[in-house]
Task: structure prediction
Amino acid sequence: MDLDVFVSAHRAEWDRLDALLRRRRRLTGAEADELVTLYQRTATHLSLIRSSAPDPQLTGRLTQLVARARSAVVGTRRASWRDVTRFLAEGFPAAVYRARHWWIPTALLSTAVATLLGWWIGTHPEVQASIAAPDELRDLTRPGGQYETYYSSHPAVSFAAQVWTNNAQAAAMCLVLGVFLGLPVLWVLFQNMLNLGIGVGLMFSAGRLDTFLGLVLPHGLLELTAVFVAAGTGLRLGWTVIDPGPRSRRTALAEEGRAAIAMAIGLALVLFVSGAIEGFVTPSGLPTWARITIGIVAELAFLAYVFVLGGRAARAGHTGDVEAAERSATVPTAA
Result:
C-alpha cells in the first residue's frame, strides 16, 4: 500500500467525520446516516493501515477518531446487574465449555503426573530422604502433624481469604502467561502437581493416605478443576500465537485474550467457593465422609453448570468474548 496515496484519497472523509463529531447541534437524519457510513469506512481504513502500512501517528489519529465516532453511534453504556447475570449464565460457562478440549486432557495428564510422583516418592525412601530429614518427615505425617494442623492453624475467615487470594493469583498467572507459548503455564502446573505428589507420597509411606485424602478432597476437587481450566485456557491462548487459524493473529489473540480475562473473573468466583470450603469445611469436626460429600457435590454442581448451562450457551453462539457491539471493527480475512 502507498500510504501517501491512501491518505490523500481518504483524508476528506476523515475530516468530514471529525467535523460531524464536533457539531454542537443535533444532527439531521441525513447527517446521522452520513456519520454512520463514515464511521464504518474509517474503521475499515484503520484496519487496513494497521495490517498493511502501520504508521504510529496516523494510526493514533484514526484510532481516536474511530473511538469518538463509535461512542457517538452506539452511545455510552454502563454495566448493570443484567450484564453480571448474562456473564454468569452465558459468557463464563460458555467459555469454560469451549475450552474443554484443552482443560480436560490437562486435568487427566496432571492427575496422572501427580499420582506417579506420589507413588515414586512413597515407595522410594531415598527420595523421601532428599525432601527432608527423618524427624521433619515424621513431624509432617504423624497424627496431629503439620499436614493435619495446616488447615486449622489460622482463623477460618483469614485462612479462606488467604487461600482464595493465592489460588486466584495462580489461576490468573496461568491465563496471562499462556501468551508466552504456554511454557510458563506448564511450569506453574508442574509445581502444583509436585506439591500434591509430595503430600500423597509422604502420607502414603506413613500409612495415612486416607487421612490426607480426607483433608484434600473436600476443597481440592473444585480447586484443582479451576486450576486445570485456567491452565488449559492458558495453553490454548499460547497455541493461538502459533496457529491463529483463519483469523489474523491480532484478531485471534484479541478474542481469546478477552475470553481469558473473563475466565479469570469467573474462576475467581469458583475459587472463592473452594476457599470457603477449605477454610470452614476441611478443618471442621464433620465426619470425613460428610466433608468429602460436600466437596463432591460442589464439584458436580460446577461440572453441571459448565456442561449443561455452558453447553447450551455455546451452542447459542456465546463464546465468553464481549458482545459484538462492544468489539472493535475488523476487516474480514480469507480462510
Summary: Residues 286 and 314 are 39 Å apart (CA to CA). The first helix runs from residue 3 to 21. DSSP finds 13 helices and no strands in the chain. The two ends are 22 Å apart (CA to CA).
